[in-house]
Specification:
single chain, about 160 residues, alpha+beta, five-stranded antiparallel sheet
């Protein structure tokens, strides 16, 4: 029997609520404020069928371009063939969360500003860029009371 091609086809686990997370949504979901330019993650919530995004957009991140009473418009870049198309999706607020993708960046911006201000006051240069993990420093291993041992394979021996 051929499978169906409906709007929510093959979303059995995608839109299912998590274990012990069933029932009505928390009020904090509705008390969050979204502004134009906010970065949001799209995550369809199975408890609310209205304003649910298409399964393609589940797990995608976009930028808010429009805010209404109970929904927001989100710009998502969708890969179509060999290009990315800007898609404008209207989604109810139950199905989006503020993205944490910029939290680390904004924290580093604040830290770097504080470091730069302190360096300007003291008059010495400071390194603000992130550096990859550097190789370990050279070290000397003494052989005094530490004889090197030769490691060899144990010859094969049957236990019968």
């Amino acid at each position: 029997m051929p499978h169906s091609f409906g709007y929510r086809a093959r979303t059995r686990y995608m839109f299912a609520r998590k274990f012990r997370q069933h029932g009505p949504l928390h009020l904090s979901t509705y008390l969050k404020t979204y502004k134009v330019g906010d970065i949001v993650d799209i995550k369809g919530c199975g408890a609310v069928q209205k304003g649910m995004p298409h399964k393609y957009y589940h797990g995608k991140t976009g930028v808010v371009y429009n805010v209404t009473k109970s929904a927001v418009g989100v710009i998502v870049h969708k890969r179509v063939g060999n290009r990315y198309m800007e898609k404008r999706v209207n989604i109810r607020i139950e199905h989006i969360n503020h993205s944490k993708c910029r939290d680390d960046f904004l924290r580093r911006v604040k830290e770097n500003a504080a470091k730069a201000k302190a360096a300007r006051a003291s008059g010495e240069p400071v390194q603000l860029k992130r550096l990859p993990a550097q190789p370990r420093e050279a070290r000397f291993v003494s052989t005094k009371n530490n004889e090197p041992t030769t490691i060899t394979a144990i010859p094969y021996d049957t236990l019968i």
